[in-house]
């Protein structure tokens, strides 16, 4: 237990303190000199607290604070006690025994405390920085006009290596939506099944806006009109990184447009796209400057509740880990990607060893030279789809890690541009044991 002092030095006639450690019950504070104080005996951990001063709830603006899901602000404190006295004999020196003494040794904290401490450090960094701090000073931005023909749009996405792209509506003068690899999958399926939404010959002239309207009619059901009226999910350049990350996670999207709070003379409100990878890269750079509270970074994945795992590992997961064989139908792979709302599935050989990863964005390879128009999608296997991918981009490297990899190694691996997940393998056999995605990382860090 640790004696923790809480103080209110800003005056008042009376003051009380309450927090997560009191069950949010008010505890009177005593006046010591010019400030109100109270001391609690607490176990190590992270706690939230507030003050009631003259009947008004207050927070100390000079101390760390957090905002809960209801927008309520509380101060936050990290209580640590890593140094403990341990009685042990010192070794003899040249045959002469030295009296036993008390030596101060640093004891490793409990895993639960380590996680709480690390989350406290991470939340402090993310809450006190905005998405504007993450946006590159200069970068290449792409946006497609909603009146561009669908066929031309998907060809541009393939040629530029884009898995998604913002849509610009010239009439409204702003970004109104996103065109994604999922749109390409849905369009292919409708073409292949001869459902007259957009005929193959119409792709040359049919605009993106028409496809989006047809998509709403097909998948919107009775709420299609409501979906059409739903505003574009976006963030502002002044939003803190916690809010931006939660927007991406809760809406199950891979990126979100950033709008300027104050549009400049260009009149263009769109600033950039925010991604979890960009936020993680920024976080890693800040953690390098952090001297304390980061011991969890050196723990192995074995001891950290994060990721999606195969049942044979004995580890629990919030969702099922799927793998597919090379001979599996591509349609089955696409079904899993869309239904599970995941971005990739590990592809294994007959022994269960990792061969490659098929991502939703890989479907864009079929847009090159109109390959999609010359194939029967239902006859294509995962192997066929990967072969097309290799012909277009060459064989690629699978990004992997081990259960014995440290959290630091995982974070650094996922902060590399273009890497969205690490497949956890058994080192000698390359048997797939789990997968760690960017979404898994931030769900854990913000948990």
TrEMBL record:
InterPro entries: AMPK1_CBM, AMPK_gamma/SDS23_families, CBS_dom, CBS_dom_sf, Ig-like_fold, Ig_E-set. Signal peptide: none annotated. Keywords: CBS domain, Repeat. Pfam families: AMPK1_CBM, CBS. It comes from the Eukaryota. Residues 137-197, 317-374 form the CBS domain. One of its GO terms (cellular component) is chloroplast. This is CBS domain-containing protein. It comes from Miscanthus lutarioriparius.
């Amino acid at each position: 237990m640790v004696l923790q002092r809480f103080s209110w030095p800003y005056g008042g006639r009376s003051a009380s303190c309450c927090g997560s450690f009191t069950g949010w019950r008010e505890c009177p504070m005593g006046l010591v000199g010019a400030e109100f104080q109270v001391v609690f005996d607490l176990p190590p951990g992270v706690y939230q607290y507030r003050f009631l001063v003259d009947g008004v709830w207050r927070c100390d603006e000079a101390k760390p604070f957090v905002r809960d899901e209801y927008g309520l602000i509380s101060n936050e404190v990290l209580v640590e006690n890593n140094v403990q006295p341990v009685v042990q004999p010192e070794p003899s020196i040249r045959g002469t025994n030295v009296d036993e003494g008390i030596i101060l040794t640093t004891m490793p904290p409990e895993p639960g405390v380590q996680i709480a401490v690390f989350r406290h450090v991470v939340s402090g960094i993310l809450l006190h920085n905005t998405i504007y701090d993450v946006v590159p000073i200069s970068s290449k931005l792409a946006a497609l006009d909603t009146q561009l023909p669908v066929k031309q749009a998907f060809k541009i996405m393939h040629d530029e290596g884009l898995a998604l792209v913002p849509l610009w509506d010239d009439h409204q003068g702003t970004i109104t939506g996103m065109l994604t690899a999922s749109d390409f999958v849905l369009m292919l399926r409708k073409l292949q099944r001869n459902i007259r939404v957009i005929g193959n010959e119409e792709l040359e002239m049919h605009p993106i806006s028409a496809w989006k309207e047809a998509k709403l009619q097909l998948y919107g059901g009775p709420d299609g009109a409501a979906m059409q009226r739903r505003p574009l999910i976006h963030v502002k350049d002044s939003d803190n990184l916690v809010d931006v990350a939660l927007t991406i996670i809760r809406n199950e999207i891979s990126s979100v447009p950033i709008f300027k709070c104050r549009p400049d003379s260009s009149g263009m409100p769109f600033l950039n796209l925010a991604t979890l990878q960009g936020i993680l890269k920024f976080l890693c750079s800040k953690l390098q400057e952090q001297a304390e509270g980061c011991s969890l970074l050196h723990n192995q994945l074995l001891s950290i509740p994060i990721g999606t795992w195969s049942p044979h590992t004995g580890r629990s997961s919030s969702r099922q880990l799927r793998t597919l064989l090379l001979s599996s139908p591509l349609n089955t792979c696409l079904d899993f990607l869309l239904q599970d709302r995941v971005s990739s599935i590990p592809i294994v050989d007959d022994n269960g060893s990792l061969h490659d990863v098929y991502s939703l964005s890989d479907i864009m390879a079929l847009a090159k030279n109109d390959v999609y128009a010359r194939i029967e999608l239902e006859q294509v296997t995962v192997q066929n789809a990967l072969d097309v991918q290799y012909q277009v981009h060459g064989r690629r490297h699978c990004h992997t890690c081990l259960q014995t990899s440290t959290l630091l190694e995982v974070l650094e691996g996922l902060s590399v541009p273009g890497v969205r997940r690490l497949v956890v393998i058994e080192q000698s056999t390359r048997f797939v044991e789990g997968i760690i995605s960017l979404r898994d990382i931030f769900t854990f860090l913000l948990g």
